[in-house]
Amino acid sequence: MVTDQEFERYQIRALQKALDIMDCFTPKTPELTLTDLQKRLDMDKTNIYRILVNLEYRGILRRNPETGKFRLSLQMLRYSQASLAKYEIRDIAKPFLQELSKLTGETVVINTVQGLSGICIERINSENILRITAQLGQSVPLLRGASGKVLAAYLEIDKLRAVYEKERPQLTASFGQLQAELQKIRTEGYAISYEEIDPGTFGVSFPIFCASGEVRENLSVMAPMFRCNQQQVKRLLGLTQQYAMMISHARGYLK
Q1: Which of 23, 59, 145, 190 could bridge to 197 as Cys pair (CB 3.0-4.6 Å)?
Q2: Among 138, 97, 103, which residue's Cα sits nearest to residue 220?
Q3: pTM value?
């Protein structure tokens, strides 16, 4: 992991600005104008446009000829596929995810840590008409929601502090309070959350262990709140724990 000192020494400010622009594009804001980007970023409009032109020329952004709005191009799918290709856990876990989704009737997800966020590397979306859906490559916070918190519970303290600083504007708990909550999650072996990120949703999550005993991914089940009752939560906890351990054992974890 790059240290703060290395970053200060080697950072390329123009590249950082380009990445800041790319970070503005999300599933909720897939298209943005130059003015939209200027409102989100503390940058001169001319500098933003110069970067946009370069990103468009390289095929990373695409401009709508009718509206003039920019969006990430399909070139990003190639980068995404290249990134996900190294996660052999996807091949190992897929049959288990399919079984778990059928048993629960809900959306099943595997996330890992990327930088200071979580990211979805595999998922099976529920076949129910009313359902919660997940997208490959979807970013999730690490200190809100069951899926993120299970991953955060196994982070080293320095990285956890960095995540906390990033997410602090959306948090009400102190760093010490979050540490205590994450320690409880690690002790109990799972996390459960109700509407912590998106209204009308709840989720349960368990760690996935690799052969060395490290936790790099987790298994989560997400469902609408209207299907949430004590019996269903208990059932989801039992099944998710069972399948998280089955995936762990398939990866060589012996405990």
Answers
A1: 145
A2: 97
A3: 0.70
